[in-house]
Amino acid sequence: MAEDREAGHTVGVDGKVVLVTGASRGIGACCVRTLLDGGASVVIHYNTRRDAAEALAEAAPERCFVVGADLADEAAPQALWQQALAWQGRVDVLVNNAAVYEIEPAISDDAGWPAAWRAVWQRTLQINLLAPALLATHAVEHFRARGGGILIHLSSRAAHRGEKPLLGSYAASKGALNALSHTLARTHGADGILSYAVAPGWVGTDMSWDYINETGDRGPLAENALGTLIPPEEVANIVAFLASGAARHATGTVIDINGATFPR
């Protein structure tokens, strides 16, 4: 890891071991394909889509390790990390991508409303914030012993701009994830640990297109200055670049990719 931190040294992901959470579809799957194309070995985490995760691994079975874990379970992040670490004996890059985007129940006189509202908030914070934080904590301990490593957190435009009604838990979780990334960068830079956040707007995943086609809402397309959704491959390209270690002094930053829908 030390040579990756030398000024002027050209680096890439070839030979690196990368753990990608939420990797069976969407942005996560694109990250896996891009990293594999660059020569990395990838731990492909999935929750329920085992078949999709295994299909991804077929591209380079000798460089892929598929692990299932429900990050809503408080014990799952630690178990996932231990399995990822045991595969090759090391992890060089952690990509915290797994997340949920769940609508909160509107306030009502229903006696069950508070519990339902609280359940959405607790599930969102567990998967979007607490699980990434615990994985990052384990990664930092490992990276410190090895002389460095890279943390990449998939955030969201919502962390800066806010979200639609009844999605406050999602925006709050992503804002907190940014703050965690900043803190890790400031605290552990001297240990050779780099920490970044990547904040996309609407990305052209199956879930996004399904929403547009089912609702007829063309807003996500119209608001983008380029008139389309963000290709997930572009997000993956940024992740792979950061994973290469070629932008050391960008540590602590949040990299926006939102089609000029929220320039900062």
- Counting DSSP H or I runs of 4 or more residues, the number of helices is 9
Fraction of residues in helices? 40-55%
> What distance lies between the first and last C-alpha atoms, to the nearest angstrom?
33 Å
**Which H/E pattern describes the elements?**
EHEHEHEHEHHEHHHE
- Largest beta sheet, briefly? 7 strands, parallel
Shape verdict: globular
Please count the beta strands (DSSP E, at least 2 residues each): 7
Which percent range describes the beta-strand content?
5-15%
Major sheet: arrangement of strands: 3-2-1-4-5-6-7
Q: Which whole number gives the mean pLDDT?
A: 94
Structural class: alpha/beta
Which radius of gyration do the C-alpha atoms yield?
18 Å
Low-confidence stretches: 1-10
Task: Write up this protein.
The structure is a single chain. The protein is 45% helix and 14% strand. The chain contains nine helices and seven strands. The protein has helices at 26-37, 50-57, 76-88, 113-146, 158-161, 168-188, 206-215, 219-222, 232-243, and strands at 17-20, 41-46, 64-68, 93-96, 149-154, 193-200, 254-257. The chain has a seven-stranded parallel beta sheet, with helices on both faces. Helix 4 (113-146) links the parallel strand 4 and strand 5 (149-154). Helix 1 (26-37) crosses helix 9 and helix 4 packs parallel to helix 6 (168-188). It starts with 16 loop residues before the first strand and ends in a 7-residue tail after the last strand.
